Amino acid sequence: MDRRQISVSKRPAAKRPPKSTPEIYWLGLAGFILLCLVAGAIGGSFAAPGLHQWYASLNKPVWAPPNAIFGPVWMALYLMMGIAAWRVWVARQAKARRAALVLFLVQLGLNVAWPLVFFTMRMPGAAAVELGLLWLSILATTVVFFGASRIAALLMTPYLLWATFAGFLNIAIWRLNG
Description:
mainly alpha, 5 helices, elongated, 178 residues
């Protein structure tokens, strides 16, 4: 066969995702967990100034949990959120992976904003609206995560439930202190 007869395709070769090393795999997990914990720390820094003085002085419903519950619950939720986002990140074949991670970042930003509005600005009504947006973004993230990883969606479910509870608590506090 003559070499001149062989035609070369002008199409570029299909790009393959780079093979991940175990280090990148575990560093990704650590990175997503750290991202969530940092977001929690930033939100906590917004909550701290109003938590012990202003929040303590508010009328709260009888079903409001003690303050000591919030820290451990949020720590567990941030860990689960980080693992959920990582599960989506490692699901390289998922079509909605990028959109899911963008939604995740949006809800994380709204998560950080809520204590700013509620505790720092001391605006429970505006915080209830912001929490409604947060809740919708958590729901959207969870639904899109389901398409990439069912485990990721399951890991987001307690967060959605806690945000639902927090929404009712926020509204109750707003109404009691109107």
